[in-house]
Design brief:
Chain lengths: 388, 84
């Protein structure tokens, strides 16, 4: 990451850190952190330069996710989810004038994008929708029982999945971009959770009428999901979790070093546990990095992006890194002991622990493993160390 | 010989495709018609069994199985390769 981008990310993270405890306690949107992300112009990073962005690749976004994850998990996850949606626009919207205009607005006005895939009656299966685009002439209407829209109430744009039309099967979906002033959102459920409290992933009844059909992304959602969402979700979420885990190991390291300074001439027993945690953190990092490199290699090759081998690899990045992140934070807590359990010490790890517990549940690992299990029925394997 | 009729027979046994097979043109995108990740793996397995081939990883992508025509081409590539 360029030093300029690193500095901007650190400044935004410092603001996020300052408000993280309050955001968590009150379960409120991390408004200060998102304002800082906008002030540092980090919401338009991925937008191509010709539309006023910086043309950043996924690895650069991942690094910012990690930096933010060390400060405030909820802010980092909002940033990650925004860029997952932006990745879909950048990858699949370049042939549409309307969506190019939207990218320019995202970069210039630092608009925040949210996602609406989950639907009552369908659950978290993002490749099926009940609601449908109902077009009349050049305009369409759409109503959706969106059981979760993270930070929906604060978003400037929501990308919504729906069936192509009222006759289409549930899997024949499109992705439409709705601007805040084009839709009404009525809250149907709240978000009072163990962790990740600031993502405000509430449920809404979403209604939009008289929206130009040009706002429907030209590519089928099946293609968007396979070619940009799968990889960007797993990689950016994993980068957030890596940030949380590395923060926890840093706290543990600082604790062990304090003990070592107080008792010169001995290696504190907790140092051995720190060695194990640092070991696990490095393995997690290797998992996320190999996924990012695999994506960079496949990015411009639709056949590779839609291949079974690629899906298996990315699924494995998610299941492995989410489980490891929980394990690492728990190891760190065991090292700092009661100081980490308390909420009022410099070593407190309660919030990161509660936040990271969402990782294996956010798209449940069992769902992903079932998908991988199916893919392995035809994958032939025989991979090499330095490729595939 | 890889005939469209045999491919259609295999598609008829696929849960996601069974009701649609008679309406499918050879270039219709099966994924857009509702073929999902599970269904596509079941389709690949049925093709491997019926034509006694094994698709290498390099062919296990969306394009190779996206329509009746591409399935015919993908399978033909392997059966011709085996005969040669």
């Amino acid at each position: 990451m360029s030093s300029d981008l690193a500095r901007r990310a650190k400044r935004a993270a410092a603001v996020a850190a300052q408000h993280a405890d309050q955001v968590d306690r009150e379960g409120r949107f991390p408004a200060e952190a998102v304002a800082a992300l906008k002030a540092e112009r980090l919401l338009g990073l991925q937008v191509p330069t010709q539309y006023g962005g910086e043309g950043a690749g996924l690895a650069q976004i991942a690094e910012v996710c990690c930096t933010l994850g060390q400060a405030c998990s909820a802010s980092a996850m909002v940033f990650a989810m925004h860029h997952i949606k932006l990745a879909s626009l950048v990858t699949h919207g370049l042939t549409s004038d309307w969506h190019c205009g939207l990218m320019a607005k995202v970069a210039n006005e630092q608009l925040l994008i949210a996602s609406s895939t989950t639907e009552a009656g369908i659950g978290g299966d993002l490749r099926n929708s009940l609601c449908a685009v109902e077009a009349t002439g050049d305009q369409f209407s759409l109503g959706k029982d969106a059981s979760v829209i993270s930070y929906g109430a604060k978003a400037d744009v929501i990308l919504v999945t729906a069936r192509r039309n009222a006759e289409a099967p549930t899997s024949d979906q499109v992705l439409v971009a709705l601007m805040q002033d084009q839709m009404s959102l009525n809250r149907t459920s709240t978000w009072d959770t163990l962790g990740m409290r600031g993502t405000c992933s509430e449920g809404f009844r979403l209604e939009a009428k008289g929206v130009p059909c040009a706002q429907i992304l030209p590519k089928p959602f099946a293609e968007i999901a396979a070619q940009s969402m799968l990889a960007s979700s797993h990689l950016l979420w994993s980068s957030v979790w890596f940030g949380i885990a590395s923060y926890a190991v840093d706290r543990a390291r600082s604790f062990v070093q304090g003990e070592a300074r107080r008792r010169p001439g001995t290696v504190p027993p907790s140092a051995l546990r720190l060695a194990e945690a640092a070991n696990a953190l490095q393995a997690m990092k290797a998992t996320v990095l190999s996924g990012l490199r695999k994506y960079e290699g496949a990015q411009h090759d639709p056949d590779e992006l839609s291949s079974i081998g690629f899906a298996v690899s990315l699924n494995n990045v998610k299941t492995t890194s989410s489980a490891m992140a929980v394990d690492i934070v728990q190891r760190a807590l065991a090292i700092v002991g009661i100081s980490g359990y308390r909420n009022d010490t410099p070593f407190s790890l309660g919030r990161p622990l509660r936040d990271v517990l969402s990782a294996p549940l956010m798209i449940a690992n069992d769902r992903i493993l079932s998908n991988t299990a199916n893919l392995l029925l035809v994958q032939k394997g025989g991979g090499q160390l330095l490729s595939a | 010989m890889v005939s469209d009729e045999v491919i259609k027979d295999i598609l008829r046994q696929n849960e996601a495709m069974s009701g649609l097979v008679d309406t499918l043109g050879e270039n219709d995108d099966l994924f857009e018609k509702g073929l999902d990740s599970f269904g596509s793996v079941q389709l690949m397995l049925a093709l491997e069994e019926r034509f006694e081939v094994e698709f290498p990883d390099s062919l296990l992508n969306r394009r190779s199985f996206s329509s009746i025509r591409t399935i015919r081409e993908t399978v033909t590539k392997l059966t011709v390769g085996a005969a040669a």
